[in-house]
Amino acid sequence: MPAVQNLNLKVNEGEFAAIVGPSGCGKSTLMKLATGLQFPREGAVIVGGRQVGAPVKLAGMAFQNPTMLPWRTTLDNILLPLEIVEPHRSRLRRHKAEYVAKAESLLAQVGLKGQGHKFPWQLSGGMQQRASLCRALIHEPKLLMLDEPFGALDSFTREELWCVMRDLHAAQKVTIILVTHDLREAAFLADRIFCMSARPGRIVAERRVEFPRPRDLDITYTPEFSELVHELRGHIAQARQAA
Amino acid sequence: MPAVQNLNLKVNEGEFAAIVGPSGCGKSTLMKLATGLQFPREGAVIVGGRQVGAPVKLAGMAFQNPTMLPWRTTLDNILLPLEIVEPHRSRLRRHKAEYVAKAESLLAQVGLKGQGHKFPWQLSGGMQQRASLCRALIHEPKLLMLDEPFGALDSFTREELWCVMRDLHAAQKVTIILVTHDLREAAFLADRIFCMSARPGRIVAERRVEFPRPRDLDITYTPEFSELVHELRGHIAQARQAA
Amino acid sequence: QTPVRFSLDWRWEGPAAPFAVALDKGYFKAEGLDVTIDPAAGSREPISRVASGTYDVGFGDVNSLVRFRDENPGTGIKAVMVIYDRPPFAIIGRKSRGITKEVSSLQGKKFGAPAADGAYAQWPIFKTVNKIDDSSMRFENVGFPVREPMLAQGEVDAVFGFSMSSYINLKSRGVPADDIVVLPMSDYGVDLYGNTIIVSQKFAQEKPEAVKGLLRAIMKGVQDTVKDPSSAVDAVIKRNDVAKKDVELERLRMVLEQNMITPWVKENGFGGIDKARFAKALDQIGLTFTYKAKPGVEDVFTDQFLPAADQRKVN
Amino acid sequence: MKTRNQLVFAPWVFTIGFFVLWEVLCRVLKISSFILPAPSTILWAVWEYRSQLTYHAFHTLWMTLAGFGLAVGFGLLLGMLLGSSRLVNAGTYPLLVGFNSIPKVAVVPILVFWFGVGWVPPVLTAFLISFFPIVVNVATGIATVEPEMEDVLRALGASKRDIVFKVGVPRAMPYFFGSLKVAITLAYVGSVIGEQNASNVGIGNLLTRASAAFEVPLVWAALVVLAVLGVIMYAVTAYAERSMTGWAQRSQMAA
Amino acid sequence: MKTRNQLVFAPWVFTIGFFVLWEVLCRVLKISSFILPAPSTILWAVWEYRSQLTYHAFHTLWMTLAGFGLAVGFGLLLGMLLGSSRLVNAGTYPLLVGFNSIPKVAVVPILVFWFGVGWVPPVLTAFLISFFPIVVNVATGIATVEPEMEDVLRALGASKRDIVFKVGVPRAMPYFFGSLKVAITLAYVGSVIGEQNASNVGIGNLLTRASAAFEVPLVWAALVVLAVLGVIMYAVTAYAERSMTGWAQRSQMAA
Ligand SMILES: Nc1ncnc2c1ncn2[C@@H]1O[C@H](COP(=O)(O)OP(=O)(O)OP(=O)(O)O)[C@@H](O)[C@H]1O
Ligand SMILES: Nc1ncnc2c1ncn2[C@@H]1O[C@H](COP(=O)(O)OP(=O)(O)OP(=O)(O)O)[C@@H](O)[C@H]1O
Ligand SMILES: [Mg+2]
Ligand SMILES: [Mg+2]
Prior knowledge:
Largest sheet of chain A: 6 strands, mixed
Keywords (chains D, E): Cell membrane, Membrane, Transmembrane, Transmembrane helix, Transport
Subcellular location (chains D, E): Cell membrane
Structural class of chain A: alpha/beta
Protein name (chains D, E): ABC transporter permease subunit
Family (chains D, E): Belongs to the binding-protein-dependent transport system permease family.
Membrane topology (chains D, E): Multi-pass membrane protein
Bound molecules: adenosine-5'-triphosphate, magnesium ion
Number of strands of chain C: 10
Largest sheet of chain C: 5 strands, mixed
Oligomer: heteropentamer
């Protein structure tokens, strides 16, 4: 049985989209298909009107597992995209210090100040996940694909990072696609939320989020917010039942 | 700087303890020290009045990362503890079918019915985590150490598994130590909650949870419950500030 | 039946015909011996094999035996029967490269001289006896497989080798027979003996009758081979599935003529030694290395196991 | 499934291409057949001596398999020991490396002293020459197991032996199979060396006799037979590898 | 830090123990010195011939290093190619395996024909004999990279070359260093074979001359020198390994 089927999902440029759905419904698969990391056994993936044949360039991606390269320090792991993506690639050698400073400031933003010299396996699970987020951001991609980037974090750290993402989105107008199982997270951050169901993975609901931006953490305590989360819960409950 | 220091933590037999704390504060390290998987660079670890010298036997452990062995199917991964721990070890060959049936029923309980033949890398992140939980349970250990076992799950699946854990604890009177960053989870499941702070990791607060057992999911909507969660939030907020 | 392990000096090729004949015609069996014959990789190998006790009897180079005994005193292995009255050591050159039968033609030439070669090992004798100054000559350590091909290609002017192998190999490489010049060292004052039958001390002391029987059987094999080389070679071909009869027969004929059935053998019978010549050989061996303790003739060779003189006639 | 077909044909294309190139070079450069015979000459020799070659090849195959079998068993055991004990590792590696820096040709005569000419020296030479790569790779494979995987078992109070068998060895399988490719070729070399100096049969023995008789095409025919035997054994190993370490071969890089 | 000390002493203890055992066995079993000389005899010969041994050993060392260097470079490149292309892998493995099943002794004569007697044949033999383990291990290392690691780079639109260099090669380093231990010992064997057949200097040449002259203790002295050279090279490699693949050696099994 295919993991995802007949799945249609439209995200505008500069939009912040969130995908929610029960565990195992095909969210990660969707992300990998969309970026061309996996190829469909049958059928085709169309992005921007064109069939995806090779990994799309210029996406920043944070995987569900942090998968840092164990032979590089955290800092070197974060600098990795710069060694690949132009124009940084050709600039990296000469402007090393500048880029390192940028990586350090990103680390500081996610609460890992001064941990760059450690190897990934010397970091805690949540720290690795945050470092992996830094890696997705360092080259300032136009499209960010985040697969449960805050799954291993406590609520405080998580909320801090929400704000970091919110500000980043506001400042740079990047397109962000966020996979999450935290409905509050989706409601707080996204412009549009897609609910997926399992076996085969399909979009069962699409919901625009109309809260004005910039949003403050306080809105998560408003009744409208609770209502939205409740509505999403309903969709997911349905999606699970269907499976 | 040591990851944890002067840490004293008393869990009674048959108790359900939860440990909460900000990311990177030393929760996983604590678990590993207590089970003898890591040895302290300095000082000693005392469990049950005796210094820990080798990994303690008869503990069931679910790690923060599922770390399934990639060369075994999910089912074989789950059966692994039986190949090690007596008395199952000597019984396994003759009673194979019985044990497989047990593993299958565990899989069904966590919502992975019929997925046993798949290899771990064919499962989604949340599914791996659930399989790893099955592995911790299969040999019915007297002590369960769970390190963020529900981190990658959506709230519905998570709540289902809360109930599974609750029933298991009620039925078998195992001692459970649960690390989590979800305060509602801790409040719903635990008899006693420990809050940790970072750098070095210490217990900053200990809180008994007095809700009567058996608890229903409904209690999570009571004001007492919200109050407890709020109190815990306060401890963690303090713990983070201190760092 | 007394079991006897016998080590040849080399593969099953023409020169091993006497032993093959003795096996096939049951001469060993008739003496009450159950002989197994194994090949070896060179005429030095049987010496250490016999000395180690793995083999009872070997067919190997007596000059190496002298040297071996000097290096390892107390092993007590001895030569009991001479097979090659003259050693096959030779310098093989090409007329077209200026090599002639004259020793002086060797001056300033380039030689293919395998480090492990038995012929090259006698160079110090050759050079001393013929008063050659070899400072202008170049000796290249080439492996056995390339020795003759390099000569055929003209990479070297001459090689050290055994007359019967190198000559035949060169011919099969397409070098015309009249371009090949063979300088057998024994024609140039090198008075050594060649391969002999060697027995271990243990075997000789514990089973002297078996040794005598063995030599009688070999003697018969030699006589049969001399009489009918062609059918003797068949016994070899049977044991070597890549050997070609005409080649092996030619090789055997050369060995018989040049090394085994020499004028001295025709006159005095096969298998024995001329004590004076043997003593001289011991002196000459002293030119190739320094004795720790120079042996006497009796130490190296004993004729006590040889068949009676009248049984050792070969013509 | 175009790529599947390509994968099946690739070995043939490459191999045949290689031989064609060799043939052409031999003809164009007029390389004389006693330096490097053209494949056609060698093929002809293979045909001419087919019965001898078959007979000796089977003997060599047996010697090699016996030696290789010993090497696999011993190599796995020693590799497990070295991989799981830093002390034994530090202690014995120098000896092992030292022993392996010694050309095995030098060891064959000793084997003859002890066991005489026969099947023992080739088998032992094949064994001695081929066990080392297996030891090194298995040891490396076990020593580089991710501690996270070990912890799964250690948390259960598993003995070190259990950990080595349940995690170390399976994790080391890709390493092990890698080493088998090296070991099987070395085992052939070993049994041939053994046969050259201490046997009355076998390709090694045939080789020396052929080269002593300057039958260069036959020498090469024997070498080609050796190579073919090696490739067959490799194919068997590769098949076993695919079926046993499929879990490790998921990389898409090798596409 | 008791274990640290143990690790430093272990090689010495094992090695000295081994030689003592050898000495005792030789004396008790009265093994004659032309079969297997006792270590004391060998040591004496080493001392007696120290100047020749040093001279020839340096020559061999150079030959070996040159051949080994070539093998490392070529092996890495070919291994990367084979590990990253299934097609090339399927196509060339049979050829490589076939070539490696051929005893290199048989190849030396060809080298002598083409390059004459001198330094080229030993270097090339060392190269030819030692590159294969490197190729196999590097290829295996690259082919078994976890796809999750590749994805990190593939998501950035990295070219295959980038992926091979940034993920494949570092991931294959433990495999690579494992193979070096095998390759260095083979390289010694190769240069010795080359020297035996095509050189006027070097340990290989010394070996043949000594064994032709029944100087068995000198033969063994030369072999011991070879072994010591091999161990020294191994120590250098092991040092490089420790400093470059520390990340992979975190296993606690090897305690
Ligand atoms: N490599 C693979 N081979 C075969 N099946 C796979 C593979 N990867 C994923 N699947 C299957 O596809 C389905 C969807 O998996 P996916 O990882 O996309 O889920 P998900 O929505 O990300 O779940 P989670 O929230 O638990 O991470 C699952 O049923 C899983 O078993
Ligand atoms: N192997 C290691 N070597 C060195 N330092 C380590 C190692 N493992 C963990 N640490 C450090 O110990 C501290 C605590 O790590 P730990 O994994 O216990 O955190 P945690 O509480 O589990 O965090 P999280 O909630 O993010 O999983 C961190 O600062 C981390 O950098
Ligand atoms: Mg997922
Ligand atoms: Mg943790």
